[in-house]
Write a structure and sequence with these properties.
Layout (H helix, E strand, L loop, with lengths): L9 H9 L7 H11 L4 E5 L5 H15 L7 E4 L3 H14 L7 E4 L5 H13 L3 E4 L1 H9 L10 E4 L2 H6 L3 H8 L7 E6 L4 H10 L5 E5 L8 E7 L2 H12 L8 E4 L3 H13 L4 E4 L5 H13 L4 E4 L14 E4 L6 H8 L9 E7 L4 H11 L4 E2 L52
Parallel strand pairs: 1-6, 1-7, 2-4, 2-5, 3-4, 5-6, 8-13, 8-14, 9-11, 9-12, 10-11, 12-13
Helix pairs in contact: 2-3, 3-4, 6-8, 10-11
Length: about 425
């Protein structure tokens, strides 16, 4: 379906044409008509499916055709990076329209707080905010959201995981009851449906598109080794790979982010580390250097797994297996954007094998295991288990002694339970 078929105003179509938008994605094709009809909506779509445009374009069209006094739309996102991403897209779409917006998020100096306060007091047409920062403004008493017509929650599942449910409900209390509410989530667990019932009208529309399936043009592979070999492996994989434009390495903790970035730097590679340890200005500077190609490698926590649209990412490396299968899909979804191809590599330690099996089950596929390069240590081998053989990587072959005997112990007198690495 072409964007010209939705009945958008000429000024909005002019902006879309200038940005090269012609064909709607499935989430846009299904969600835009419902939103334009005024329905509340619960949308399930992963990053990269075009869901941001799916909710931005209808509200921009309505505002252009029916200008509004005061704040018209409030958009809530879980992280600063996602708020910035939405605001950038909004700026592009609205170039030929009368709509202006203000991004509201913490981690900046007092001057930004003053700018946000002024925009909120004068009623910026569109406000894009993180929950915590917006609550800080609401608590000061000068915010008037009585004019809001659209309330949008982006990455709702991540906001619930981050503990923002009470903040969101508090924000909702400041909004008119007859507003239109749009809730978008990458996953649809029971807690999201329960949350949606508290915010959406009973007769809301539900749209689900391409849930939990990575792009087919991502080449996925994995290495099986313990933590002591991971730093050496990631250095070996990236050394001399000058043809790679951009690589993201996801690590599970801020400490590991620092360790991996330091090791790569010692190997002579240009690398940046991004985690919540950095102040906002430093994070933005690192991201800009990554976008421009000045820094080709970024090591990050999951702060970069959602809502960051950076083109030309060749490789995603999961230094650790993420705890949630959905997070794996979002991580590797940073590559192979816009029909390009990409590579996703994962390092699987013994303690993470069960997590990776859950990921493979979710994707309904088995990821190919690659042999370790020469000189890379596998790490501490698994202890003998209660079935008589040494624990190895991958699926067990043959049948051990499953019956009778001292079931809880293997041959070393050691418990057969897994030991966390």
């Amino acid at each position: 379906m072409k964007f010209t078929e939705f009945g958008f105003t000429d000024t909005l179509l002019e902006g879309l044409s200038a940005m090269g938008f012609e064909e709607a994605t499935p989430i846009q094709e299904q969600a835009i008509p419902a939103i334009m009809d005024g329905a509340d909506l619960l949308g399930c779509a992963q990053t990269g499916t075009g869901k941001t445009a799916a909710f931005l374009l209808p509200i921009l069209d309505r505002y252009t055709a029916d200008p509004h006094t005061g704040t018209d739309t409030l958009i809530i996102g879980p992280t600063r990076e996602l708020v910035q991403q939405v605001d950038r897209q909004l700026e592009g779409f609205s170039y030929f329209t009368p709509v202006s917006s203000i991004p509201i998020y913490g981690g900046r100096d007092g001057r930004s707080m003053d700018q946000e306060r002024k925009a909120l007091k004068t009623g910026a047409p569109v406000v894009v905010a993180t929950p915590g920062r917006l609550i800080a403004h609401l608590d000061l008493g000068y915010v008037d959201f009585s004019t809001v017509r659209h309330f949008i929650l982006d990455e709702a599942d991540r906001m619930l995981d981050m503990g923002f449910i009470h903040d969101i409900l508090k924000i909702a209390q400041h909004l008119p009851k007859d507003r239109q509410t749009l809730l978008f989530s990458a996953t649809m667990p029971p807690k999201i449906r329960k949350f949606a019932r508290e915010l959406l009208r009973r007769e809301h529309v539900e749209v689900t598109v391409a849930v939990s399936k990575p792009a087919e043009n991502i080449l996925q592979a994995a290495y099986e080794l313990e933590d002591e070999g991971k730093v050496k492996l990631v250095s070996r994989l990236l050394e001399g790979k000058k043809r790679l434009q951009r690589t993201i390495i996801f690590a599970s903790t801020k400490k590991k982010v620092r360790e991996v970035a330091s090791a790569l730097h010692r190997s002579g590679l240009t690398v940046a580390a991004i985690s919540s340890d950095l102040d906002q200005n430093s994070r933005e500077e690192a991201l800009q250097d990554f976008r421009s190609g000045k820094v080709p490698i970024v090591v990050a926590t999951d702060v970069l797994s959602r809502g960051i649209d950076i083109k030309g990412i060749d490789v995603v490396i999961n230094y650790d297996v993420p705890p949630d299968p959905e997070d794996y899909v979002h991580r590797i979804g940073r590559t192979a954007r816009a029909d390009a191809s990409g590579v996703a590599l994962t390092f699987i330690s013994r303690g993470d094998r069960h997590r990776f099996r859950r990921i493979e089950e979710l994707m309904d596929m088995q990821v190919r295991r690659l042999p370790l390069p020469e000189g890379i240590p596998v790490g501490t081998p698994p202890p003998r288990d209660n079935r008589g053989g040494r624990g190895g990587y991958g699926r067990r072959s043959g049948g051990g002694n499953r019956g009778g005997g001292n079931r809880g112990r293997g041959r070393g007198g050691r418990s057969g339970g897994r030991k966390k690495s």
